[in-house]
Sequence to fold (1063 residues):
Amino acid sequence: MLIGNRLLVEICLLLVWCGASESLTITEPPLTATTLLTLGSNVTSSTVTNQTAEDSDDNDLNCSNVDIRNNLRQLVLIQNCTVINGFLHLMLMDRVPAEEFKKYSFPNLREITGYLLMFRVVNLGSLRNLFPNLMVIRGQQLIRNYAMVFYDMKNMIELGLKNLIAIQRGFIYTQHCPILCHLDTIDWSSITGQSNSTKDLNFFEPPKGKCNNVEVCRGCEPKYCWGSTSCQKFYKGFNFNGKIKCHKQCLGGCTGTSDTDCKVCRGWKEGKRCVEQCSHERLQFRHTNRCITRESCLKRNGRLHQGECVLECPAGFSPTNVDLDVADFDAHTCFPCRNRCPKVCDSADIMYLSDVDRFRGCTVINGSLHIRLKQDHPDLIGELKSGLKDVVEIMGILKVFRSNFISSLEFLSSLEIIHGQETGDNSNFSLMVYENSNLQRLWDFGEKQMLRIMSRGMYFRNNALLCNAHIMKLRNITEYDNSTDTIDWGSNGYMQACHVEHFRVRSEVLSSRNVTVYWGKYLGKTHHRLLGYLIYYIRTNENKSPYEGRDLCSKFGWRTRYVALENVTMKGDWYMYNLTRLKPYTRYAFYVRTYFNETINSSTDHVGLSEVHYFKTAKDRPTSPQHLRTVRKTDTTITLGWVLFPSEHELVSLYHVDVFIEPDEPEKFDQRNFCLHPHEPSVSNGVADDAVDLSGGCSKEFCCELLELEEEAEDEDGDEEEVTGPDGFFSEHQPNDDDDEDGQSSRGRRRKRSIEESSRKTNKKSSSVVYDEFEKSMLNFLREADEEHQEQHGGRSRRDTEEIKFVNRIAARTFTTDNYQYTVDGLEPYRYYIFQLFACSENNTVYCSAYSLYADRTDRSPFIDLLNVTILTDNPTINHPAEVQSNDTELLPTVVQTTVGDRIVLHFPEPTEVNGLTVAYRIEVESLNGTVIRRWSRCITRLEHEQQKHLHTIRDVAPGEYLIRAQLISLAGPGQFTEWMFIRVLAPPAPEAVGNNGTSLRDGLIAFAVVLIFGAFGGAGAFMWRRRHRGGAGRRDDKIPLADNDGNQVELVDDGFVNCSLK
Fold:
């Protein structure tokens, strides 16, 4: 919280400074910090200084020191800016609604040379839309050590800088952003370019809300992203689509291979070109990283100095402090001062690198200089030296205290005089050095011969690694009155070997992992009892001091082995000890120190200590390539990408890859009806824009996975037996299995397991997956081969084809590469391939690593999956325009085929060139009969079509005109339709009759006459029969009497019928 409060004060001072600067346009009087905090929402202030393309010597529109507050509409002033020279402030916007921010976007802005500050912009949720193409923040100006600061952003959800590639100097700070998420899903070490090996130099306040980070980077490889919609981009020399190799001076991608096609330059930009150094006719202008002309420099009121355009002359040079007879002031150059041309700066406390920047070129500090550095930096002494190397005089006092990361005071190499004047420090000393836990020496006294302290004395206390001998040397070369010194000799150097008695050491390399260390007996005189020796060793490519890398909080410092005196092995006059489990082909530094029975006072007691010696282990098999994945792929190629342990970059000299193809077996896929259960092609397996360098270091919150694996590998034996197959290898359709049973991610933790265990674990994660028999046989085959050749090859090592017969191996290639990528070509479209990648230190199977296993399919090809469809008909084909209409906008066929009957028979054999395997067919038919056009489709499986001998019959077809086309469905999905085929279906003819039309008419009349005659005879016969029956009926008395009084009148007639009339 103390850091946050101090940063808030500094931001407030920035507000005042930006409001009071003469170069800014102010509509209100300058305000104090308190007034700005309380009335910031009522202030409208914005400043943009634009430079034309002519002034900037390229086509980029540059803006300088953008300070926008209160009034969001002022953002239009940077609408076309591609570069902001200096800082970008966006602050104090409490009342701007969130919808207003959506109206502004600056896609042209690619570069900020200073820093980015976002302060109390209440309703801004993300920078995704504001700065979608911001690629580089150079950090030439900093707030403390930070190049990007987000403070009091209450509604910011994510940063969203999806194209940010690099922060060349400085780090990131967030505080009072309660819902800001996804900071831990970004590889900041890749962006800042710093290893962060011992400390987390970024400051991130944990969000107070819960962030959904489980699936946020799903589909990103590696697993870094700016949020759920944007994977983090890593620049590795190629454009982000992976198709263009950029010029070496490009930084953020490119549009071509030339130095004029860079989106952002790595260093200097001259006109439209990115260059390593400016040409002779141009001047370097560091404020903008541009190479500018002399005329452009003079327009900026600059001076010419040693090939640069500087706004003020550096220390030791002056534009005017020279003899007039030798000076040509029209040249606008910086002249070397004959005696001294001082640059006076006010006193200050240096706590951060941004404080150092204000002292560049200062020769005189008009006051006191207090140095209390609170944070580490990979090049801390270099940064301090760049700002303080010219300081010659300090009018007040020099105080260096509680700076745990300073190892020396050599950054004050020009210091000659400390006046010790009264400055209100309430101190009796002019030079105070105390409580610096890592301070090991003061100056290089071979170069520094003299120091003067004009009044008062020195104060040294509690510098654990600073030997008293260094303090004595400083007192000897300093002209001052030492009667007032206060030096606590016992509290300085008590953790350091200050009184050293050296003894001999040497080493003998036995193998790639074993080295014998020899050392002579310690013969020093001491009242302590010698218990044994401590062997210190460390991997390094540079020469080391025994006192470097002794930060107790670091896991990257010296390792130790204790050798008890009673267990030590003697060989002649030498003690000896075997160091084991070292890294192959690695340079080590080592030294030996005595170990006594009780704690000694290193500042007074004698200690046995050897000189630092070095050895390099022999070559051996490297560790398997890590994070094997698909970088990009086509229908005939797959580009593999991987990373190596940082310690093995020099060891690996070549690679070997075995390529296996997994056949797509029709019998297996025929068990599924792809018409009822359509196929959904899998998403590309692990395709990333580019490889990522995971060689950076770790911090508490953001730990580098690769270095953790390397640390684990050092503590484990039998790395050769480890399977490094990727997640989801056994099924390309398997969902994301990065989480273990408890929901915690297991990615990045390399676990030792056998092949059976790997299969069992994968089966446990996805019990529904049916493993391919080929994969099972492949793994069993590999295990058996490894067991047979374990002694010779050591695990899953590279195998010679003469010894082992491989199953389905189609290629074996040995190659070299400098970007950890390799393209396997000559593949077939949408086929499933398995890759075994070996890293080798020599072209010999003995020196090749165990393989890393990976599998993926190639992309589908749009030029295959084509059918050749014919219509079986006995009628001739008619070639003329078909006057038909169709719902489809495609060009209709001009060839008309005719068939007779109620069916259409199609013939199309199974193609040989298919994306993977044919699984089904689709036939579409469009009826053109009547006023309504009707279309329908049919689907048949591959097996059904094969059983029908590649014939397909469309039945119950009414006479008329039809359009027909067909489509193949493969494992990659539906292919292209064939062209429409036009067919005319005719009704079947009536049965054929005898004779011609006249004969038919005559036969019809004759038949009618015959029927008429037979009808006449039949009618006559019926009449006669009726008359005969009627005569017999008159002679019979068959009248029926009716009952009386039934209410009806009954009239009997002679014909035998009864007529009844109802009442």
